[in-house]
Write a structure and sequence with these properties.
The complex is a heterodimer of chains A (493) and B (278). With 493 residues, chain A is α+β, with helices and mostly antiparallel strands. Chain A is 32% helix and 23% strand. In chain A, a hairpin with a 2-residue loop joins strand 4 (73-80) and strand 5 (83-88). Chain B has nine helices and two strands, in the order αββαααααααα. In chain B, helix 1 (10-28) packs across helix 9 (243-272) and helix 2 packs parallel to helix 5 (137-164). Chain B is elongated, with a radius of gyration of 22 Å.
Chain lengths: 493, 278
Amino acid sequence: MRSFLLAAAVMVSVPLWQSPVAAKILRVAPPSPVVDLDPHGPNGTLRDTLMANRQIYDPLVEFNNGEPVGRLATAWQQPDPLTWIFTIRDGVKFHDGQALTSADAAASIERLAKQKGGLAPLWTSLDKVETPDPRTLIVRLKEPVGPFLRNVSLLQIVPASSAKEAGDKYGAAVRLPGTGAFKVKSFRPGQVLELEANTSYWDKPPSLTGIVIQNIPELTGRVTALVNNEIDLTWFLPDDQVTALKKNADLTVSVAPSAIYYYSWFNPQRKPFNDPRVRQALWHAVDVKSVVADLLPETGELARAPITSVVFGYSPKTPYAYDVEKAKKLLSDAGLPNGFTTELQYSPSQGPEIEQLALAFISYWSKIGVTVTPTPLENPVWTKNLRDLNWDMTMSTNPSFTEDADYTLGRLYTTKRSGYESPEASKFLLAAQREVDQGKRKELYDQAIDVLWSDAPGIFPAELKAVYAYRKSLSNVDLSATYTPRFRGTEAR
Amino acid sequence: MRRSSWKTLIGPGVLLAFVILAVLGPMLIDFDPVSVNTRQRLLPPLSRLPDGSYAIFGTDQLGRDVLAQILVGARVSLGIAIASGLFAALVGAAVGIAAGWTGGSTGEAIMRVIDVQLSFPSILIAVFLAAFIPASILTVIVVLAVTRWAAIARLARAITLKVTSQSYVESALVSGLPTWRIITSCVLPNLAAPLLVLLTADLSLIILAEASLGYVGLGTPPSVPSWGRVIANGRNFLDNAWWISTIPGVAISLLVIAIGLTGELLRRHFARDGWTML
C-alpha cells in the first residue's frame, strides 16, 4: 500500500518537475511575406521585413512617444549641426558571441549608406564616421539633418566583421547576426521565419520563448487562422472585418493611430497631369468624404494633409470640397472640356480596401468625362512601375516609418520619386531637412504642406488607424503606428 | 425512335435558359459596370435600395447590384467560353489533321509538342500567360484556348489516322482527288460528332478555368464582371456578405452541370447513330 502511494506520488509529481515553463511561442501572420532579413538591403523599407528586423536587431536609439530613448547608444550629443557623437553601450553581445563596439555601428552606417535603395536615401548627407575608441562613434555630416535621430532609429546594427564579409552583397543572400531580443532559428524567405529568444539579451530578456512568423497570403486565410487558434496575432485588417472580429470572445481587436495613409498620385511628368488644374479637378470630382465614411467607417479618417496626424510635421488643411461643377470648369480651363482617358494602377496587396477605393474614384471620375481603366498589378510589377514612373495615376498606402515628415514629404516630393517637383515645396522641404531646431522645422512643414495640398501631386483621401487582432492569451502587444511591432515586451499565457 | 423522358431535357433546358439570360438579360437591366454607390454597400438579398428598387441578390462591397453583375457576367463568361472553345477547336483540328495526314517525322514532331503541352497543368499555363499579357477579354479568350487546343488536336489526329486507313480514302487518293477534298469530304464529317462532344466537355472546363483566373486576379479587367471576378470580389466578405460569392458560384455550378448533361445526351445520341467514343 505504501509503495503504491509512493508510486502515485511520484507519478503525480513527475509532470511538475519534468516539464519546465511551457514554451511560449508567438505565432504571427503579417499581411505580406518576409522576403529577406537584410536591414540595410534594398528591401529594408518593406513593412514586414522591417518588422522581422526589429526582433533580430537593435538600433542605437528608438523613439518612444516622440522622444528618443537609448538602445545600443547610452548617450548622444550634437556639438555642432554637422557632428553627432554617440556613446556605445558596454557589455552587449551579438548572437554569434562578438562584443559590440563603435566599429560595428560605423560599419553598419557605411554598409547602409553605400547601397542605392531601401533606407539609404536617409543617409545621403553622410560625410564620414569615426571611431576614436571602442565606445565612441562620431558621425560627420555634409549638411545638417533635421530628423537625424529618427533616421538613426531605423539603422539596425550588425557586426563589422559580418558587414565586411557581405561586401557588396545585399538582400536574401546575406545573413547577419544581430543583438536583438530574438535570434534566427530558421528562415525560408517568403514563407516562414522562426525566431528563438536571445537568453543573454543585454536588456530585459523577452518573456516569449520564440516567434513563428508565417506567410498566409489571403486575408480570409489569416482571419480564419486567427479565429481557429492557428495564429495568435495579425494586423492590417480591413474595416469590414473589424466589427465581426470584435464580437469574438476569444479575440482582442485594438484600433490605434497609425502613420499610414492612402494616396492616389498623378504623374506630372505626363500630360495632362502636368497641369495642376487637371489634378485639382480630379480631386474636386470625388466625394472623398463620403467614400471614406462608407468604405472605412472604423479604420479611416478623412485626410487633411499628405501625412498622418501622428507624424512629426503634421499640419491640417481644409479638405477639398466635392464640387462637380468646379471640377468640370477646371478641366475646361485646362483645355479638356470633354475629359480624357487614362489608367489607375494599384496592387491589391497594398491595402485591404484599395481596389474598392480605386473603383469608387473611377466611378466619380466617369461623371466628369474622365474615363479611367483600373489596372491591378502584382506587387513586384506595381513597385517597378512606381520606381520607373511608368504610370499615369497610381494608388497605394504609404507609411512614414520614421514618424517624421521628412521620411515621407522630404523623400517623395523633392527627388521626383513621385514624378512631382516644385521649387517652392522643395525649398521648404529641404530647409526643414537641414534645420535642427524642431520648432522651426514644424513651421517649415506647415508651409510645405500648404504648397503640396493646393498643388495636388495626388489625392490624399484618408489616414488609417492601425488594426491589430490577437488572441486574448496575449498581452502587452506593441500597437506600432507603422505596423512594425516589436515583440520583446509581448507576453503570452 | 428513341425514348426521351423529360429528365434528359433538364440539362439542355437549363443550358438554353442560361443562354437566353446571357443574350437578353443585360438588355433588361440598366447596369453601368463603372458606376458604384458606396452608400448602399453589402446589402443582403431582397433589400430595398434608396431609390426604391429591390436588390434581389443583394449588393456587393461597392453597392453594385449582384443580380445585374450576374446577368452581365453570364454574357461575359459564356461568351469567353464559347469563343475560346471555338478558337481552340479551329487550331486543334487544323494541327491534328495536319499531324495525322502528313504522318512520319513531321506528324511525330507535332505530337511531341502536344504531349509537352499536355504534360503541364493547363491552369498553370493560363496563369503564366495571363501574368505577361495585359488583362482584357481577348487575352482571357486566347489564354484559355491555348490550354485546350492540344486535347482537340490529339482527337483530330486519331480520327484522321483512322479515316485515312479506310479503303475508300485510298481509292480517292488513287483516283487523284486533291488533299483538301479528301479532308473536307472524308475527315471532317467523321470528326464533327466527337469534336462536338469533346467541345461540350471543354466548355465547362473553360468556364471553370475562367472563374479560376478571375479568382486569382488574372481574368477579365475589374470593370468587366465575369462570374469568376464576382466570386473573387466576395472572397473577403464570405463571413459578413455570403451572397456576393455564393450566388455566382451556384450559377457556375448549375451551368457546368447543365453543360455536362447536354454533352452526355449528345454522346448517347451519336453512339446510337453507330459512332463510339474513341
